[in-house]
Specification:
Largest sheet: none
CATH architecture: Orthogonal Bundle
Distance between the termini: 57 Å
Structural class: mainly alpha
Shape: elongated
Radius of gyration: 18 Å
CATH class: Mainly Alpha
Helix content: over 70%
């Protein structure tokens, strides 16, 4: 276990910050630009995973396991989000035969 921790600490924290920032930016752009609901959900998951990466990296660098506990809870919330979101998408697709977000604006009353 010490070998893994030393390997993780051999990479600078700036590298983790840059990688997480890039992943988060890609996720934000996916949410803002794409109109497919599945791609939007995948982009939200990418943003959550970038936050998880940073929490785990800072947890290792500060020798504090509380960041890893937060990662676990974020993963549980993300799994629940995916389950509810995909169930909603299936029901919307059955009713409208599309998962385009622009078409969903027509469902307003």
């Amino acid at each position: 276990m010490e070998n893994i921790v030393s390997q993780l600490q051999s990479i600078s924290i700036n590298s983790y910050i840059w990688l997480s920032s890039i992943l988060f930016t890609i996720g934000v752009m996916g949410v803002l630009i794409r109109r497919n609901a599945i791609v939007v959900f995948m982009s939200i998951e990418m943003m959550l995973n970038s936050v998880n990466l940073l929490l785990a990296a800072f947890s290792v660098y500060h020798n504090d396991p509380s960041g890893q506990v937060y990662v676990f809870f974020i993963m549980v919330v993300a799994a629940a989000e995916v389950a509810v979101g995909l169930a909603l998408l299936v029901m919307i697709y059955r009713n409208t035969q599309t998962i385009d977000i622009n078409f969903l604006n027509k469902l307003k009353w």
